[in-house]
């Protein structure tokens, strides 16, 4: 059971009316299931249910993009999608970026180009960037900035974030040749 | 933040969805993209007892362009789909201009045009586009289908005319008769913020003469403003600087902004004036070059 819980008075009866639904997702390539209340958000299923805390919840109001994950390959703010809506879908979090051969080029790029300061926005930035590079493997700087415009960095480290994504694009194109 | 407790259903057919809404007797809400509804529920501004998730209904993700230029936008067509629909942009450039300015790229993955119309936010962008194009919403309920012109669809801020057991299944943008031109401009303080002011312009030209015009404004009233006076200033005339100035004056006149942290009322009217002038001047310059 996931931890959508509320503390109740010790004398209270258990609430028999709480609706619970089964959610089955392919999470970072692995089939996972959980029984959740419909009001549980995808971000909380990932963090508290599946204990993948790489997905950060920042503003919790659909602004900051820290909670961005990929659903069927497309970037989504996981604080603004119900966990039940992910049922039957493919979800990728930052934990799913690295492969057996090591870090993803985006992760290498963020490391190499100093694309993170406090690191809070980084998972969301990298997943939004991954979706961009899959659609557009050789983006211009403007295209990177546009694609990341739904993700906020409050260290205002955008300059190096953009550099990191361009670095990764170059690496990924190089290794394909 | 969690929404308050609700029941959730994800029907597989439209009839089933309508049945659930009917039984919900006004306490049920349709969930499509959820990019406005879910935040409202988290903030407890909306507390539906039942959510009817229409994301599994077949066919609603269809974005169709018909031979006569009519564009049909299903209830599950995302902003992202419209942003990438080159065939739609060729028919109606105002759609192509507006799509990349809706919210932010991540929100555009989930949010829908039809949902935006239903949400009826006075600062919403799509309602202005659909108003400028004289579009309509197709709703289906237990009694069948009906078409609702966009001007009648929105009844006030965050209010629409749908019955509690009706689903807005698509929005339709009628095909143009003549050469189409137009644009969409929006002033926002930062990406993803609501419009300080926005302007949608859709016109049709027969030679250099305007045969049809729609000018609609967002962020400058308690609902989308249909600036009919501005449109009338153009119809039957060429896009001369006098005609453009008359339309811009009339649009600024029609705007009814209130002062807030985004700017004073006078400033917002000024922005509307500038936007109308800018879009129409660009159209007139482009068509001169083409001639």
Automatic annotation (TrEMBL), chain A:
Sequence intervals crossing the membrane: none
Domain of life: Bacteria
Keyword terms, alphabetized: 2Fe-2S, Iron, Iron-sulfur, Metal-binding, Oxidoreductase
CDD domains per record: fer2
Residue span, 2Fe-2S ferredoxin-type domain: 21-97
Matching Gene3D superfamilies: 3.10.20.30, [2Fe-2S]-binding domain (1.10.150.120)
Protein name: (2Fe-2S)-binding protein
Automatic annotation (TrEMBL), chain B:
Lineage: superkingdom: Bacteria
Record has Hydrolase as a keyword: no
Ranges for domain FAD-binding PCMH-type: 1-178
Key words of the record: FAD, Flavoprotein, Oxidoreductase
Protein name as annotated: Xanthine dehydrogenase family protein subunit M
Organism whose genome encodes this protein: Nocardioides mangrovi
Taxonomic placement: Bacteria, Bacillati, Actinomycetota, Actinomycetes, Propionibacteriales
């Amino acid at each position: 059971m996931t931890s959508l819980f509320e503390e109740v008075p010790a004398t209270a009866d258990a609430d028999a009316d709480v609706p619970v639904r089964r959610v089955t997702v392919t999470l970072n390539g692995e089939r996972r299931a959980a029984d959740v209340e419909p009001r549980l958000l995808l971000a909380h299923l990932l963090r508290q249910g599946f204990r993948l805390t790489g997905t950060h919840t920042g503003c919790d109001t659909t602004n900051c993009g820290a909670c961005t994950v990929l659903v069927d390959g497309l970037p989504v703010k996981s604080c603004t999608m119900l966990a039940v809506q992910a049922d039957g879908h493919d979800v990728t979090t930052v934990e799913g970026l690295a492969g057996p051969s090591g870090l993803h080029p985006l992760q290498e790029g963020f490391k190499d180009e100093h694309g993170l300061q406090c690191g809070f926005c980084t998972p969301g930035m990298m997943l939004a960037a991954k979706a961009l590079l899959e659609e557009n493997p050789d983006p211009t700087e403007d295209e990177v900035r546009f694609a990341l415009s739904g993700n906020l960095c409050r260290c205002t480290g955008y300059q190096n974030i953009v550099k990191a994504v361009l670095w990764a694009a170059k690496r990924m194109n190089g290794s394909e040749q | 933040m969690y929404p308050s407790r609700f029941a959730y259903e994800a029907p597989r057919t439209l009839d089933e969805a309508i049945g659930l809404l009917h039984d919900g007797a006004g306490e049920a809400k349709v969930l499509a993209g959820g990019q406005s509804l879910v935040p409202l529920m988290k903030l407890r501004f909306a507390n539906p007892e039942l959510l009817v998730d229409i994301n599994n209904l077949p066919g609603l993700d269809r974005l169709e362009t018909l031979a006569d230029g009519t564009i049909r936008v299903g209830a599950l067509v995302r902003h992202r789909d419209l942003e990438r629909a080159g065939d739609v942009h060729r028919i109606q450039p105002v759609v192509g201009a507006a799509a990349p300015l809706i919210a932010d790229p991540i929100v555009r993955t989930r949010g829908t045009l039809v949902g935006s119309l239903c949400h009826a936010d006075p600062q919403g962008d799509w309602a202005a586009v659909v108003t400028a194009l004289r579009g309509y919403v197709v709703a289906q309920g237990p009694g069948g289908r009906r078409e609702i012109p966009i001007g009648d669809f929105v009844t006030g801020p965050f209010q629409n005319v749908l019955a509690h057991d009706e689903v807005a299944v698509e929005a339709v943008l009628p095909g143009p008769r003549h050469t189409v031109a137009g644009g969409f401009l929006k002033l926002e303080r930062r990406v993803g913020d609501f419009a300080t002011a926005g302007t949608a312009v859709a016109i049709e030209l027969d030679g250099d003469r305007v045969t049809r015009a729609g000018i609609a404004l967002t962020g400058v009233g308690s609902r989308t403003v249909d600036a009919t006076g501005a449109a009338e200033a153009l119809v039957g005339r060429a896009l001369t600087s006098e005609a453009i100035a008359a339309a811009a004056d009339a649009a600024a006149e029609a705007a009814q902004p209130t002062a807030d942290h985004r700017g004073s009322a006078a400033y917002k009217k000024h922005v509307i004036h500038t936007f109308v002038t800018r879009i129409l001047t660009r159209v007139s310059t482009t068509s001169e070059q083409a001639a």
